[in-house]
Specification:
Radius of gyration: 38 Å
Helix content: 40-55%
Strand order of the largest sheet: 15-16-14-17-18-13-19
Largest sheet: 7 strands, parallel
Structural class: alpha/beta
Shape: globular
Distance between the termini: 34 Å
Strand content: 5-15%
Length: 1541
């Protein structure tokens, strides 16, 4: 296959280049935010910039990027825009800036919303310009820019300002652009539309002529735009050279059409306009489609447009069409065509409104015989004598075209294929075809005695494409192979490289606000998830195959000059089974093959290969290299042509074969020891792919792919679950997805976004028990500000928690009230809460019987979140950093557990870490641990001795059963009952029924109230039958103060006993079920009430869970804004519906869309397809009500100010001001946060040894120096974390720490050195942050990443960056304006030890020293360390010279001598541990990665020789700049390639 062209990476300009630019000079004069005295507005500036900088450079991204970054749009263009100054250059400049903001993925419409007055005028001029002639004032390139701007507008319907303008283009009046016959036909199909149409016409008549003309232009805009596009398309020659401007215009136009078709609000009326224009027919017949290279992307986009134009949906109602309904529509079209051909000039058009069966009956009656005996059967009351002459003419026509006679009498299945239709219509003349099309209302009526102006090819394609049978979408999906092949993997239009700049369009689906149907929703996610996985697979294949160094041998074969850990050469490959297809399918049910490899590798790698488990995915690869032995592999050149890759096919491991050829099954039994190095794996091949390959081999004579494989590649297990997720999505699409009615429209993005809020749910609950949520009645009253709280008891001593609260329940739909007094009365009632304190029944006399209680004083917004979570419906909680999201989640879970004990709750999170944090807090509340279950592989990370996994719970149940039976035995003994009641759960149940209950009932009869007199209080204790059993409880059990108190104690004791037998009854199933698997399934399906798993586990195991009959009533999702859209949706459908309805009652989503989104490694999918948008974020954009937590308790108030501007009213909890740790200053540092400017070190700022593997040595050294300084002052190393925004810098800092202080006991290592993205959800007291970049802001321009970076520190944040670069970034201004208000040089107080008594903000009593650069800091820390060592050495020498009497213990001297030896050793090697800064820059060091080790062992993917500049400049960290395997290509968001900024 041909190697794809390698896209070029756009290099961002440096700061010095930016400053030298003409644009920058103008910005400093006219609009730069930091310039105080600006020149007045001059329209000529805009004209000059547009002509000289934008047009002259052919809209170069670099120039537009500079302008947009300089805040040209915000501070100059839109600020000064008005109709008086509007011009072509002005319009185009604004469009370029908006398009650039969308490319950069930053908010684009904010400035327009602040000044909306002139936007309608501006938008109308854009529409006018988009329709201008291509050879007129606006060039085709400029009109392409306008198309892109319009596309962004149509995709921003959630913005009121945009929607108000766009709606005028896509509403019902746009049908003015239809031909009259088609309009009449559409209005007949939907009778109610005629009323609306007549109303529109009446309103138009009332408008003044100018306004009417303006309205007509807007309504016809899209119709005229389509006609203009068709004229441009027709100007593309077949073989002569074509300008790429035309090609790009055509591609962007089709992209716009796809986006209009893929949204229901835009599609509803537009789809008919598009169909009436026959755009698809024009496109498929165009020369551009036939041009292989130039038209490749255009053809792919066209296929997407064709898919959406025929999508299975009713455009008017928005309802999804079933397969039967689609078949009926198809049959109607064919029978209408048959009827048209038979009675071209005879039957009136009413016949065409008959059903397909009626039409076929009419056709048959008239064609079976020419006899007039059929006259009574003639439809519609026509006189047969009138049509007889025409019948004779028609029969004459059939004499010339006998095929049409056959066509009219054939059944639909015979004539609805493309081949059949071409065969029947091909012989007809152009005029006849035109007449047929006009009778079907596809074309205007052909005037008499005139020839058609359309080509026959167009007319034929029009009829054939409209009537040919289409494969159903679900059938296409089921026939699709799940593994990517080489054709998809290296297709740049489908799977772009990391160099995607955002300039061009791609043949990819987009995830925006709305979807057509659930099928469309799942299909788009399916395709994108598949392609994102494909991108990762491509990276793995390129890495593994290039390591193997395939070369051509002397005899033309393949020889491997290298080796790879994740890939092995195939010794033999054999297909061993091809099972027969299922009925109705044409692909095999199963295809299995044996793959033999030779594992002559190191033992640990051999173990990895032998450890391949069932369902692990591998890839079979064929390479035929053409390069001779020893050719060096060059990563900058196309991969395929270098290695000669030919085929890639996926497979799934069934198991490894033993010596007898049997599959070794996974299980607890030890695996057999196999002799030799040869291993054979049995694998499942993709049946769909195998069928396609075999068909291609048989029909086209292609080679058999399955006889060519010579490499097998495996992948890391954590990254290899894509096939299971894709199968889950495909299974969902094959089943009837039953989403709760109250959620359906919201998920698709339609209807009232607040319709699922609890206040609008018909089944909201009036009275809720808040259990231990409130700490006191005062806390309760403070939690409902503006409400009138009525407590049912007046005695303040009884107003103690727990509380039941009765809320006024209003009808969700609401009613219009005419009486204002009633409305006021209702408002007063709606604000009244009835609070009922209640006492939790005594649970027993033992201390552990006392319920665990919540100790957190929740804020009123947290209480609202808890209340909403307890009610039915959708609850969305936005939790800024440090606002207690997890505490709220745990309290909601606890309250649901106690209020609805029969309901089951599913907890889903993005990461195992978050799930474990939730579980650890759940265990601290009053929830019986037997009802907890944790699914997945992360339970081993729980910081508890208890095992909450499935088998851990089974073991718990078995152990608990034995404990409880021992208690039964003790109870039996205390009651003096003979026998063995504790033998089984069943015998214990009988013992309870006949022995315990009888004694209790007898006791109750003795001590219960007899008439009006209370029994004696002593009787409660005297007659109590279980004294001996409770002898081991704290004594005395009965207090003897009152009858009621002692009676409650007695009942508590009985509850304790009864609970034993209740649990044993629940555990009885574990006696009946013998295997651990059956017991674990029972726990999952019946016993567990709170089940937790990650979203990935839910996607992987959906099939198994549904098959087990798993049920749940509530879902709580933590980290919801970090979960992929599809992985958020799948947990809704982990159970089968009940009677056609979902039993789901609550869906609580907790997250923060202002922090980082899901990680998408490919930038094209992330930005172009918007795949990084979580469902949580989409709901927020749609307008679903949220509860915004508004008080943080993590960070100092001053640190919180760096990010609280991003949230609604985010304040601080009182303890942030009161606790000593927050009010005390950071010892040795003047400020609690500071931005430290770092200039180039030895002439180098940022560097990039590998693509997007950014490093900055100056910042790395500075950060480590500050860390060492803090540790030397006494800061605990584990309280400091070092963060950076790029993987490359992370590895560089780790190497420097290893070199400087990692093994030094006086300093140690920081808590973590990682990236900002990886540290989301975590925190530490002190954060040192390196921003790395010096050329362009990079992906920190994403404000969400900035928020995460600023919010990780509790007490101190120190940021190292190139200030001149970051302070001018518009999106970062709110944070950097605060940072730059403080000095940009580090201010330290070296003589102030840790901890300090100085208050934060006080002037220190010690001297402040200002550090101006990194070398100064490095020298200072070196000298400080040396001074500390010498002081310590001198102290020990003095101590050793003291007389023995002054030493308390002899051992102490010995210990001190040992310590001294250690210190002396430290002094001898201190130059190695803390190298002198002067040595740092001059001496050569051995690289950290040795050249004699293989790259895969060290994790390196490039040798130090590849980056000599850095290794020569900074030899001490020469190894640091070698990129580890995990970072060679983007492996997480921090190393993913951001768009060039």
């Amino acid at each position: 296959m041909a190697a794809p062209a390698q896209p070029k990476k756009i290099v961002a300009p440096t700061v010095s280049q930016i400053n030298a630019e003409f644009v920058t000079q103008l910005a400093c004069k006219y609009w730069a935010p930091h310039i105080k005295k600006k020149s007045p507005f001059d329209i000529k500036v805009i004209e000059d910039i547009y002509e000289k900088e934008i047009v002259k450079s052919r809209f170069a991204i670099r120039k537009i990027m500079l302008l947009e970054f300089s805040q040209y749009l915000e501070n100059y263009l839109w600020m000064n825009y008005s109709p008086e100054v509007s011009s072509k250059a002005y319009l185009m400049s604004i469009c370029c800036m908006v398009n650039e903001k969308f490319r950069e993925n930053v908010p684009a419409w904010e400035i327009f919303k602040k000044k909306p007055d002139h936007f309608p005028f501006f938008f109308k001029h854009i529409l006018k310009a988009a329709l201008a002639e291509t050879d007129g004032e606006f060039s085709l390139h400029e009109q392409t820019v306008l198309l892109l701007f319009l596309d962004h507008c149509f995709n921003s319907l959630e913005v009121d300002l945009i929607r108000s303008q766009v709606q005028q283009l896509i509403s019902l009046p746009m049908w003015m652009g239809l031909q009259p016959a088609r309009l009449e036909l559409e209005l007949k199909k939907t009778p109610k539309l005629r009323k609306f149409w007549n109303l529109i016409k009446k309103n138009d008549e009332k408008m003044d002529p100018e306004a009417r003309e303006q309205a007509y232009q807007e309504r016809r805009f899209l119709s005229q735009l389509i006609q203009k596009f068709i004229s441009v398309l027709k100007s593309v020659p077949l073989s002569e050279p074509v300008t790429m401007d035309k090609v790009h215009y055509c591609e962007r136009f089709i992209e716009l059409m796809i986006d209009l078709e893929a949204l229901l609000p835009t599609r509803r009326w537009f789809n008919t306009i598009l169909d009436d224009s026959h755009l698809l027919v024009h496109c498929y017949l165009s020369n551009l489609v036939r041009r292989e290279e130039d038209g490749h992307l255009f053809s792919q986009l066209l296929d997407m447009l064709k898919f959406y134009t025929g999508f299975e949906i009713n455009d008017q109602t928005g309802n999804a069409l079933t397969e039967n309904e689609m078949t009926t529509i198809h049959y109607d079209r064919i029978t209408s065509l048959q009827l048209t051909l038979c009675w071209l000039r005879v039957l009136p058009c009413e016949v065409f409104s008959q059903s397909s069966k009626q039409k076929q009956g009419t056709i048959i009656r008239f064609l079976v015989s020419p006899s007039s005996s059929l006259q009574p059967e003639f439809p519609l009351g026509l006189s047969f004598s009138l049509v007889r002459p025409v019948l004779d003419n028609q029969r004459a026509a059939f004499a010339h075209f006998p095929e049409l006679y056959d066509f009219a009498l054939s059944n639909v299945a015979e004539v609805d294929t493309r081949e059949s239709l071409v065969k029947f219509f091909g012989p007809l003349s152009s005029n006849t075809l035109h007449q047929v099309a006009s009778y079907l209302c596809l074309l205007p009526t052909l005037p008499k005695n005139e020839d058609t102006t359309f080509d026959k090819e167009f007319l034929l394609e029009l009829l054939v494409s409209r009537h040919e049978r289409r494969i159903s979408q679900i059938q296409q999906l089921n026939q699709m192979p799940l593994y990517p092949t080489e054709k998809i993997i290296w297709d740049e239009n489908i799977v772009p490289t990391e160099y995607y700049s955002g300039e061009g369009c791609l043949a990819l689906p987009k995830l925006n606000l709305q979807f057509l149907t659930l099928h469309d929703y799942l299909l788009r996610n399916f395709n994108l998830f598949r392609l994102e996985s494909t991108y990762e697979i491509r990276q793995d294949i390129e890495d593994s195959v290039s390591r193997m160094k395939p070369w051509q041998s002397e005899y033309g074969g393949v020889v491997f000059g290298g080796w790879a850990r994740m890939a092995q050469p195939i010794v033999a490959f054999t297909v061993v089974e091809v099972a027969k297809p299922n009925i109705g399918e044409n692909w095999p049910t199963r295809v299995r093959a044996d793959v033999t490899i030779n594992l002559n590798v190191r033992d640990h790698i051999k173990d990895e290969w032998e450890g391949l488990r069932k369902h692990d995915v591998c890839f079979l690869i064929t390479v035929r290299p053409t390069k001779p032995y020893g050719t060096k592999f060059d990563r900058r050149r196309p991969f395929i042509e270098q290695v000669g890759l030919v085929y890639v096919r996926g497979c799934e491991i069934q198991g490894m074969l033993d010596d007898k050829g049997r599959v070794i099954e996974d299980g607890p039994e030890p695996r057999p020891n196999l002799r030799g190095e040869s291993r054979t794996f049995r694998v499942f091949l993709d049946p769909n792919q195998y069928q396609q390959d075999m068909t291609n081999t048989i029909q086209n004579g292609a080679e058999d792919v399955y006889e060519t494989f010579n490499i097998i590649m495996r992948r890391k297990p954590k990254e290899n679950n894509f096939k299971a997720v894709l199968e889950t999505i495909r299974n969902l699409m094959n089943t009837d997805c039953v989403v709760p009615d109250w959620l359906h429209d919201i998920i698709l993005g339609y209807g009232d976004p607040s319709s699922a809020h609890y206040s609008k749910m018909p089944n909201q609950i009036a009275t809720l028990d808040f259990n231990d949520t409130f700490l006191s009645i005062e806390h309760l009253k403070a939690s409902f500000p503006g409400h009138n709280v009525k407590v049912t008891v007046e005695d303040p001593a009884l107003q103690i928690p727990p509380f039941r609260i009765t809320f006024p329940v209003r009808s969700g739909k609401g009613k219009k009230r005419k009486d204002a007094d009633v409305e006021d009365e209702d408002t007063e009632e709606a604000k009244t809460l009835t609070v009922e304190p209640h006492v939790i029944p005594n649970r027993g006399p033992y201390p552990y019987n006392q319920p665990k209680r919540n100790t957190i004083q929740f804020t009123h917004t947290q209480i609202e979140a808890i209340r909403a979570g307890m009610q039915p419906g959708l609850t969305m909680v936005v939790g800024p950093p440090g606002t207690g999201k997890t505490d709220v989640a745990v309290q909601i879970i606890s309250n649901i557990y106690h209020n609805f004990p029969e309901q089951r709750t599913l907890i889903v999170t993005h990461s195992n870490q978050a799930l474990n944090q939730l579980f650890e807090k759940i265990m601290a509340l009053d929830i019986d641990e037997r009802h907890l279950l944790r699914l997945g592989h992360g339970e081993e990370e729980l910081e508890t001795e208890k095992d909450f996994s499935r088998y851990g719970r089974v073991n718990y149940v078995l152990a608990r059963r034995i404990e409880l039976l021992e208690e039964v035995k003790r109870l039996q003994k205390s009651l003096g009952v003979p026998g063995d009641a504790s033998y089984t759960c069943e015998t214990a149940g009988y013992f309870f029924l006949y022995q315990v209950m009888s004694r209790w009932e007898e006791y109750i009869s003795k001590v219960k109230n007899k008439g009006s007199t209370l029994p004696d209080v002593t009787e409660v204790s005297t007659f109590f039958p279980f004294h001996e059993y409770f002898a081991n409880a704290p004594q005395p059990i009965f207090k003897g103060r009152s009858y009621e108190e002692d009676m409650e104690i007695a009942e508590g004791c009985f509850r304790h006993i009864k609970k034993i037998f209740t649990q044993l009854e629940e555990f009885r199933a574990s006696e009946l079920l013998r295997s651990g698997l059956d017991r674990s399934k029972y726990l999952l399906v019946k016993e567990a009430k709170i089940i937790a798993m990650t979203c990935t586990h839910a996607a992987l195991k959906r099939h198994d869970l549904v098959k087990l009959g798993f049920k749940y009533d509530n879902i709580l999702m933590e980290e919801a804004a970090q979960i992929l859209e599809i992985e958020t949706f799948i947990p809704l459908l982990l159970q089968n519906p009940q009677d056609g309805f979902s039993r789901l009652k609550r869906w609580i989503m907790i997250g923060d869309h202002h922090q980082l989104p899901p990680v998408i490694k490919n930038m094209a999918f992330q930005k172009y397809s918007n795949m990084e948008q979580s469902l949580f974020t989409r709901f927020v954009r749609v307008g679903v009500p949220t509860v915004d937590l508004d008080a943080q308790g993590r960070a100092r108030a001053s640190l919180c100010n760096l990010y609280n501007w991003r949230y609604k009213n985010l304040g601080n909890l009182p303890h942030v001001q009161l606790l000593p740790e927050f009010s005390t200053a950071n010892a040795g540092l003047l400020y609690d946060f500071q931005l430290i400017n770092v200039e180039d070190f030895q002439g180098v700022g940022e560097s990039e040894p590998n693509p997007y593997f950014y490093q900055n040595l100056g910042e790395a050294e500075y950060v480590v120096a500050l860390f060492m300084y803090m540790c030397l002052l006494g800061y605990p190393a584990d309280k400091i974390s070092i963060l950076t925004t790029y993987n490359g810098q992370k590895h560089l800092i780790r190497d420097i720490i290893n070199r400087r202080c990692g093994n030094n006991p006086l300093i140690g290592r920081p808590n973590k050195v990682t990236t900002v993205d990886r540290f989301q959800g975590q925190q530490n007291d002190y954060i040192l942050l390196s921003l790395v970049r010096t050329r362009a802001v990079g992906h920190l321009r994403d404000v969400r990443r900035l928020v995460v970076a600023m919010s990780r520190a509790r007490l101190g944040l120190y940021i190292f960056a190139r200030v001149s670069l970051f302070q001018n970034c518009f999106e970062l201004t709110p944070a950097f304006s605060q940072l730059t208000a403080r000095p940009l040089h580090l201010h330290i107080i070296p003589t102030e030890p840790f901890p300090t008594a100085r208050k934060n903000g006080e002037r220190p009593s010690h001297e402040v020293q200002i550090i101006k650069n990194m070398p100064q800091m490095a020298n200072f820390v070196y000298n400080m360390y040396m001074h500390l060592i010498q002081t310590t050495h001198h102290y020990h020498q003095t101590l050793l010279q003291l007389p023995p009497a002054m030493v308390e213990e002899g051992e102490e001297v010995q210990n001190q001598e040992t310590e001294l030896e250690t210190e002396e050793e430290a002094m001898t090697v201190q130059a190695d541990i803390i190298p002198s800064p002067t040595e740092t820059s001059c001496r050569q060091e051995t690289p950290a990665f040795q050249t004699d080790t293989t790259p895969s062992e060290t994790g390196a993917t490039s040798t130090p020789e590849a980056i000599p500049a850095l290794s020569e400049t900074t030899p001490t960290v020469a190894g640091a700049v070698s990129a580890p395997a995990e970072a060679n290509t983007p492996q997480d968001a921090t190393s993913a390639p951001e768009e060039t900024k």
